[in-house]
Amino acid sequence: MALAELASRLNCAEYKNWVKAGHSLLLLRAALQRFAGEQVQAFHRQLVARSSARLSPSGLRCSGRCTPRGKQAYMPRGKADICSPDKCDASALLNLFNFCDHFSNIDQKKVREVIKCRNELMHSSDMKVSSSWLKEFGNHVQNLLTEFQHIPEAQMARTRIEKLLSSDWAVHVPGGDQLDGLEGEMNRSQISEIEAELIKERLHEISLLMEEQGMMSEEDLNRIQIVKDFLNGNHDLQRSLQAEMQNLEDLVQKLYGQKQPMKETQEVNNEETDEDCHIEKRKRTI
Q1: pTM to 2 decimals?
Q2: What is the 3 state secondary structure string of 62-95?
């Protein structure tokens, strides 16, 4: 059953493109985490040195044991509690490169192009992207990775991402669970894990958007319904995302509960206004 569901998903070209792009972002993140961590530590040491220099006339010195949390200021919404690059997703890492002056030597235009692609990917209403979009996305990712030619992991990621985006990923149920074009690098379980991680990130995006708005829009409800319908037809993913879907359902109920009293109050106010109008009309009649 799980293999049949996976085959159905991956034999849909546009959904397969969506997963490939998401997987590429995961590879990009993994390739740059060590570099980001080392640079954040270096940035922290610079801040400690400057602080010590300013405090030294008064005989005060920093112990050097403080935690490098300055990068939290550059995290996107929902990421402010992240205190280490190895905990960052691709979005957080890219925003760190984009907003922190310590990374100003990286071509910011290339960073912003990948951020734009990442946002388009996560905001895709049906979790599908076209082949032309995927090709442009691949070019942007590869352009960004040229900024890290001195990093071995980044160069390995360039090769892996190029191979990933050009692979077929066709699944043929009668012949077993071999995925064409990956040369044994990934099995169906790994593919499903990647799918689950990407959908989890999408659900997180929907939750953050509703929390920021403090309400549910018709568009939010449509997004949620699309994911629910998708998971109802793919039980292997549904099982692995039960906790995330429950959290989203709880948020929906919370926001719906907040909406109801406001609606009731508005109705009462309208009734009072109508009553006032009737009284005024009676006064005029008298």
Answers
A1: 0.76
A2: CCCCCCCCHHHHHCCCCCCCCCCHHHCCHHHHHH
What gap in Å lies between CA 89 and CA 180, rounded to an integer?
28
For the chain, percent helix, then strand, then coil, each to nearest 5? 75, 0, 25
Widest Cα–Cα separation across the chain: 91
Q: Is the pLDDT of residue 128 over 90?
A: yes
Measured CA to CA, the distance from residue 233 to residue 236 in angstroms comes to 9
Under a CB-based contact definition with an 8 Å cutoff, are residues 163 and 23 in contact? no
What token pair was written down for 161? 């991402």
Query: With pLDDT > 70 as the criterion, what percentage of the chain qualifies?
Result: 71
Mean pLDDT of the chain: 79
Place of tokens 């894990």: 193
Say yes or no to pLDDT of 251 above 60.
Answer: yes
